[in-house]
Structure formats: structure tokens, C-alpha cells
Amino acid sequence: MVALSEVQSSNARVASTLPAGLVAVFVGGTSGIGETTLKQFAKHARQPRIYYVGRSQEAADRIATACKELNADGQYIFIKADTSLIRNVDVVCQEIRSKEKAVNVLFLSTGTLVSHTETPEGLHFATSLVYYSRTRFIVNLLPLLQQASALRRVVTVFAAGKEGPITTSDFQAWKVPMLSQRGHASSLITVSLEALAKDAPGVSFIHDFPGSVKTNLARGGEGPAIYVLKQVFKVIGPMINMPNQECGERQLFLATSAKYPSQDLEASGVPLTSGGSPVANGTSGKSGSGVYSIGSDGESSGAKVVELLAKFRNEGMVEQVWSHTLKEYKRITGSDPA
């Protein structure tokens, strides 16, 4: 496990080892993991420019005030949007592209426990938030990430290390059994990162599992199952949840540390120190291979995940998932990603 002291030491060197003016985009940045990580980024970066995307203007105003108190030299730009819709994602990305020539960090943490609800675009709402929408953000902003000079990283927060079988007859997971949904969605995320990394060796891609953290995932949910989950979380949450500040610190470490370099090993982030933890193994099982499945301890997922992903590659699953994803985007927008 990466010690919290190492995490904090690395984060404290963000300002001295990375240039001023880092640009970060936080999708799902108005609550939970996204919010606490955004605040850590604001605290430690020099003159950062942070775009954060969410649905609540009230939360956005509160976060902007807090960030200004943490770092008055930063810029905090809120974009209000329902990111379960792919067309909205395209509008948000176009706004960012019109203002920026490069993006250093793309941090994605949207999610929900609301299931079996269809978006107006014909996507499973839950799967859209954790997979289709997030992946569209990466596709759209990847050219800007590739243009960054000092740090080029994507972090998508879900359930790394929990990858499981992919149901190819039901990518959207309408009928995937509840106990299999997490593994299905986790594999979609990790596999898509491998597909994207093929054409972007200079960008580091991380899928991570934050552990138990207090979030608003059940927000908007109705019915007895959601009610029971909320009551259970109220009781056991305080006993098992990682403190929000520690979660934000660990997520910032993922977003900025050279422990998780891109495949070309350039623009890798805050340098590692002698005696600290080594460069992480990627999903290929090799050190520093550019795509990472990272557990709540900050370390790479184990041999079972590496073996499963190798099986997927041998079966052509990466290409199959990616072909399906692009077809869905084209069905919804009528065109290929811009």
C-alpha cells in the first residue's frame, strides 16, 4: 500500500515540480470524490485553471468559494450540464476546446445507483454515466491532453480491480445480473482505456477503485432497494468509509505522481523519491506500461485482473467493445467524435 505520508509528500511537491497554469477538467466535480479531489488540486497546484462539470449551481458556487480560499491565484470555471447525455458531453467539450489549447488532467467520477432508467438518447442511465459519457469525454479531450507539455493524465474512478466478464450481447447491462454488473462495467472502462492508449502513448490512463467513501451515488434514486441501501450506508458508513480528505489526497496522487507514467515515460508527473514505492505495473503486467487498474491502496490490481485482460485481448474483446462504443456514439450524434 502507498503510505499516506508518501501521498502527502508527493502532493506537497506538485507546486515545485510541475509548472504553473495546469489545466484540469473534473467531471462529477460538484460532490463526493470529484469535489474533494478538485479541492486538493486547487490547494496544491500553482495558478491552476480548473473546469468542473455538474448539475448543481448551488454546489458549484460553494466549491468556487472554498477553492478561492484555498488558492486565490486559481481560476475555477463551472459548466452546468447533465452528462448522462452524449450530446451534452459534446457541447461541454466544445466549450473547453474553444478556450484551451491543452489539458493536463481529466478526472471522471460520475455515477449513480439508479438502475434500469433509459436516457432520452436510448442509453441505460447508469451505464451511460460510468462508461459511455466518461469515454466520450476522453475521446473528445484526448487531442488537448496530447498537447500538454508537463502532465498528461486521465483518471476515471469506479471499481478497478473488480473487472469481470463482459456480456457482449448486452453491453448496456440492462439484463446483466446485479452481482455481475460491477465486473461488467469495470471491464468496459479498463478495456476502453486500453483501446484509447493505442493511439495516445504519451497519455497515462488510470482506472481506480477508491474504496468505501461517502458519496451522493444514491441521489435521485427511489424504491425500497435504494431506501435500504441509504439506511445501511448511514449505519456502517462511518465505520468503514475513508475520510473524504484522505480520499482526495490519494486521488490527487493518482492524478499527478510519476508512479503512473504514460507508455512513453514522458511528462510523467511529480518525480518519485528514493525509498518510496516503485513505478506501478500497468494492465499488461509490465512496469510503467501506461494503462493502470489501481486499487484503493494505490497499487496495481493483482494477477487475476492481468490474466483476465490478457484473455480479453486474445479474444479481440478490446476491438469488440470499442467498435460497439463508436457505433453508439454515431447512432446518437449522427457523426464520428470530433
Write up this protein.
This protein is an alpha/beta fold and 338 residues long. 48% of the residues are buried. Helix 5 (86-99) runs parallel beside helix 6. Helix content is 46%, strand content 10%. The protein is globular.
Secondary-structure element pattern, one letter each: HHEHEHEHEHEHEHHEHH
Distance, first to last CA: 40 Å
What is the number of E strands? 7
Helix content: 40-55%
Query: Are there runs of 5+ residues with pLDDT below 50, and where?
Result: none
**Strand portion:** 5-15%
Largest sheet: spatial strand order: 3-2-1-4-5-6-7
Shape: globular
| Global mean pLDDT | 93
- Annotation field: number of helices: 11
Q: Label the structural class.
A: alpha/beta
**How is the biggest beta sheet arranged?**
7 strands, parallel
Radius of gyration: 19 Å
Short description:
The chain has eleven helices and seven strands. The protein is of the alpha/beta class and 338 residues long.
